[in-house]
Amino acid sequence: MHEPAIPHLRDGDPEIAGLVEAEARRQFEKIRLIASENYVSPAVLEATGSVLTNKYSEGYAGRRYYEGQQNIDPVELLAIDRAKALFGAEHANVQPYSGSPANLAVYLAFLEPGDTVMGLSLPMGGHLTHGWTVSATGKWFRPVRYEVRADTGRVDMDQVRDLALNERPKVIWCGGTAIPRTIDFPAFAEIAREVGAVLVADVAHIAGLIAGGAHPSPVGHAEVVTTTTHKTLRGPRGAMILSTGEHAKAIDRAVFPGLQGGPHDHTTAAIAVALKEAAAPEFARYARQIVANARALAAALLERGYDLVSGGTDNHLVLIDLTNKGVPGKPAAQALDRAGIELNYNAVPFDPRTPFDPSGLRLGTAAITTRGLTEERMPQIAGWIDEAVQAAAKQDEAALGRVAGQVRDMLAAHPMPGWAPTP
């Protein structure tokens, strides 16, 4: 049973309705540990599915190219005001369609083709759009990549400074997609000032933790902050760019008309709803619980002999190196999915295997925390992960099926926002 209900979809397109129903049940019955996923509230779902999807609103509030914006402008202004208040930013642009377009807007705002940009190497936990080879950002600009230390799994700030001094990038990125430790925004800011670079913090994974006070904020250190609005922030699939007032015009021009036309007004409304939810006191408790769960899960995995990159976590994310378990990340992830535990295979720093068949697993605790799971459940989940990894090595499908049944039984007592089994 959906909340909001989907009777018209069932009547008009039962094939799609059936797939939506199947996906909802899958999300209900599996331990969702993909670090970039979460469950949104019914209010966010309602805003996303509202009649605002009918409107086209090219331009910015008060400066549109289409009429009929009497209700759209207030929606976008609410989202902007709530973003600025929640993160303490001077400026916010809530129109980017997703995280990668938001990051591309940064390039358009500050760089010319061929200019030097510096970011964390993708195999070390960085993002494609921070200058990696297969991305437009690595093809159109001159990328310089820093790494983590082999002995600690943490960003080598001495290397960052040396590279910055030698290469003189115009933009330095901090943040990424597989960083289990606190990002040292003040240290990055000091280096950026020293070389005259614009510091951009990509906090897509940790925005909710920042909003809830469970991770330090880059605002006041980075001149520009990009983020998606789902993941730990628990909003719709969208993005935002925060900046100092000095860079507001450059950012806005880069988003529109530089990269895109009309914003997705239904998404903007859902972002506004999620930002209001994130400003509530209970969201701070939620953010702290995400971190507590991740640390408890990391500790339980360490007790079972798993090798964790950096030895643990400070945030929502745990990165496992399976080398000592005798099974690569891809077959392990696929086996875990069959066991009712959803995560993704992932490269680990200095991985000898290919990105399509890497050595690691990446997992996060935002979604299971939304379901109400706490630290007490983490040893049990670690045990199931261990059982499934061992079953993958032995190709023991019966063991995977047994774990999947136990997972379903456990999750039945933890409601999922937006859907519940029909009584």
UniProtKB/TrEMBL annotation:
Its cofactor is pyridoxal 5'-phosphate. GO terms for cellular component: cytosol. The record marks H230 as: Plays an important role in substrate specificity. Keywords: Amino-acid biosynthesis, Cytoplasm, Methyltransferase, One-carbon metabolism, Pyridoxal phosphate, Transferase. Pfam families: SHMT. Pathway: One-carbon metabolism; tetrahydrofolate interconversion; Amino-acid biosynthesis; glycine biosynthesis; glycine from L-serine: step 1/1. The modification N6-(pyridoxal phosphate)lysine is found at K231. It is found in: Cytoplasm. GO terms for molecular function: glycine hydroxymethyltransferase activity; methyltransferase activity; protein homodimerization activity; pyridoxal phosphate binding. It is an enzyme of class 2 (transferase). Its EC number is 2.1.2.1. It catalyses: (6R)-5,10-methylene-5,6,7,8-tetrahydrofolate + glycine + H2O = (6S)-5,6,7,8-tetrahydrofolate + L-serine. Belongs to the SHMT family. Catalyzes the reversible interconversion of serine and glycine with tetrahydrofolate (THF) serving as the one-carbon carrier. This reaction serves as the major source of one-carbon groups required for the biosynthesis of purines, thymidylate, methionine, and other important biomolecules. Also exhibits THF-independent aldolase activity toward beta-hydroxyamino acids, producing glycine and aldehydes, via a retro-aldol mechanism. Thus, is able to catalyze the cleavage of L-allo-threonine. This is Serine hydroxymethyltransferase. It comes from Actinomadura litoris. The gene is glyA.
